[in-house]
Amino acid sequence: MMKQLLVSLLLALVPFQSLQAEEKSPVWFNSGMNNRDITFSPDGNLILTTVVAPKNHFSVIAMSENIDGRWSALETAPFSGEFQDIEAAFHPNGDWVYFASKRPKPDRDGTDWDLWRVSYSSDGWGEPEHLGDSVNTDKNEFYPSLTKNGTLYFTATREDSLGHEDLYRSPQSDGRHTLVENVGGPVNSPAYEFNAFIAPDESYLIFGGQLREGEVGGGDLYISHRENGSFKKPALLGSNINTPQLDYCPMVFGDQFYFTSEAPIETDLRSVRNIERWYQSPGNGLGDVYSVPMTDILHHE
Description:
Blueprint: E1 34-35, E2 39-40, E3 46-52, E4 59-67, E5 70-71, E6 75-76, E7 85-90, E8 96-101, E9 114-121, E10 124-125, E11 129-130, E12 141-146, E13 152-156, E14 166-170, E15 172-173, E16 176-177, E17 181-182, E18 192-198, E19 204-210, E20 220-227, E21 230-231, E22 235-236, E23 247-253, E24 256-261, H1 272-279, E25 288-293, H2 295-298
Antiparallel strand pairs: 1-3, 2-3, 3-4, 4-5, 4-6, 7-8, 8-9, 9-10, 9-11, 12-13, 13-14, 14-17, 15-16, 18-19, 19-20, 20-21, 20-22, 23-24, 24-25
C-alpha cells in the first residue's frame, strides 16, 4: 500500500517514496507523465529517466542535474529527442550510458529496439554508438544494466530463449561485447523475464517477470542471489513493491531500491475536474518511480 507523497528530491538522494491518495501535490519528477525508469551517475549528481508520450507514441530520455544542492527541471538529454529512446543505464564507472533506441542502425534497416551507448564526461556527451550485431538482432533488445567489470545484462527474445523474453549477459572484452549467453534457469523460464538490474559485483539480480507461478499481478519484481557463478531460485519481492498492476524497471543506487509502478491511487473520479486533476497527478496509473530501503529486499532468499 503506497503511503506517503514525496515533496522534494533535495536531500539524501531518496527522491521517490510511496503516495497517499489524499495528498495531491505532485512530485516535480512524478508529475503525472509516464516515467518508466531511473539511473544515477556514480557521483549522484545526474539523473536520467525515460518520459513516454501517451499510447507510446514517442519516448525521450530526460535528465536532471544537482546544481548547488538543487535538482534542475527535467530536460531532454543531449543525445536523445530525435529518435525514440528508453531505459538509460550508467556504467558503474560513469564513463558510459547504455540505452535502448529505435534510431537508424548502422548496417541494416529495421524499426526494432537495439542497444546503444554514449560516452559521458565533464566535457559533455559523445555520439551514440551501436553495440553491434553480437548483442543486437532483428528483434528487440531492452533494458541494459552493467557490472563494474563491464558485463552487460539485457532483455531479448532469441532462438535460445526458454520461453518468451529472457535475460542475457554479455562479458566485455577489449571494450566490446561479442559473446552473448542466456542467463538460464532458474531465472529464465517458459514465462516472461525482463528489465533486470545486476549488482555491480554481480552478487544479485533483480528483474521483472510475468506469468510466473505465484505472481501477484500484471508484472512483478523478483530477486535472485548469485553464488559460485550460478543464480539461485528467484524470490518474489514483497507487497510494499509488487501490486496487481505492472511493477518493473528496478534500479539500485546507494542504500535505496528504485522501481516503477503503474498502480493507481484510488480517488474520487466522479467529475470532469477530478478526472482532470487525477490525469495530471502522480498515481494516475501511467507510471511513477518509487523507492524503498535496499534492506527491505536483500533479505529475500
